[in-house]
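Input record (one chain):
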Amino acid sequence: MRGVRVLFFITVVGFLCLICNWASAEDTVVAEHKAQVRADKEAIKEQIQEIKEDAQAARAEEKQIREQMRQALIAGDKEKAAQLREQLKATHAENVKEMRMDKKELRENKKDLRQDMKKPFNPPGPRGGPGRGPKK
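The corresponding structure, as predicted from the sequence alone:
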């Protein structure tokens, strides 16, 4: 009778250890997924800040060219003002093109993040099989 109790006790302890390891592995996978989503969100915030800084620099550059053009017109140098106007047009076109590309890339990154967040999260089961889905 004592041997049966010991065997039962060992079986129960082993089963509890197995359940704890399975839950721990699943929690680790869930934590890694959440950490990846947080990292993606932070990267998007940094990208937004970079876009804002680039736009501010572009506005400052265009403002400087406009000021030079105004000074040339005041001085009566119409030829230089015309050159500066062409330079302003080219600079503005380039800045707009870069801004559109940056915004397109940002939209794609946001779309990827939303898709990652919408995906049903299915961590692996205790024996490497399919998991049970996201925790709610």
